[in-house]
Here is the input.
Amino acid sequence: MYKGVENKYYLELINKINRNNLTLGILGLGYVGLPLSLSFCEKGFKVIGFDIKKNVLDKLKKSISHIDHIKSLRIAKVIKNKLFLPTDDFSLIKNVDAILICVPTPLSEKKIPNLSYILSSLNYIKKYLRKGQILVLESTTYPGTTDGILRPFLEKLGFKIGENFFLIYSPEREDPGNKLFETSQIAKIIGGDTKLCSEIGIKIYSKITPKIFKVSSSRAAEMTKLLENVFRAVNIGMVNELKELAENLDIDIFEIIKAASTKPFGFIPFYPGPGVGGHCIPIDPYYLSWKAKEYGLNTKLIDVAGEINSKMPSYVIKKFMKLLRKKSLSIKGSKVLILGITYKKNIDDCREAPGLEIIYKLMNLGVTVSYHDPFYPNLNYLKNHKINLNSQEINIKNIKDQDCLILVTDHDQFDYGMIEKYSKLIIDTRGRFKLSNKIIRA
Here is the structure.
């Protein structure tokens, strides 16, 4: 804490944090906002969680989790202890000390950043903001959002940043389904618009994680988050490109990655797949490439990696068509079972999932498509077209009845031995099976 500081708003916030008497308002109770809320509640802080989705609020008010990897028991405990209040009453913002925005930041069809959820959040709360609060943006965005959009918004309301209102950017770093790294175990990046803003942010987040890294500004924090996701996108794009080359060389790319991983330095394993999904990798790199264009710069590596990754569902379809022709089977009317449709294994999130693109393309070819996913029992929409697919039971009869199975998401719950034994043909996009006459990589 800065010695000699006489700012009464700053001192009041610091004292509340030290006494665990700070009330937080978290906007967005999805894959980022809900675990963040629980982390603070479990440290004894009161959290008012805001969301506009009635189905989400109805479940949370009954202590039922709407996210598979977050147990309902955690929610029940903090609600019973009167530490967590899920609501859509934004007038309660006036009762909170810290406001954390955890809403989606998607792309438009032209790959232009869509900040509508952030802007809507600001409009919901603007009437209830007061002096002495801190506003934190956690949503992934391009450098300059916090000081270029949020700061002017607050200043137009009459607040003075760093004096009677505080503003920081602290990017979310959630990895849904990763049991090794929960919210409290992941270092928080803090980038404030002033030194006092950063100091308050550090004090708040240090209550849920001992690992804090302060950067020089909100822009630096925003860039940090994008670097993390660009790093992943580019490396995934690289192995996806090498996968096709390895196939033509009659080499198993998964064997090569396993071998290269024995090097203890200078190599980090990334794995190919049917494409990339989720709220980060398919989207966030384009936030940076879009921003670069303002300065007349082209982020060629980012753009090429995005193109490669986005073409992978089509690569899987081409492999499927080639295999069926090789076996003299008709593509139209063939039966295909998709194994896993969520964007990564062991979670219930289908945002930007490549499996959805694969199903859509197969249906357009006249293929009879079914799927099995223990984490996603119903599929109602594809490309804005209403459909009605339910997750099918995996049994011997169902497997034998298919012309081909395509492993898209390698959930640990699958009985891989049974699947391999009774299937006629498997296209494996995740390297889960050993290659054989009926198991093909894609």
About this structure: The longest strand covers residues 385-390. The chain has a mean pLDDT of 94. The chain is about 40% helix and 15% strand. The domain at 311-441 is CATH 3.40.50.720 (Rossmann fold).
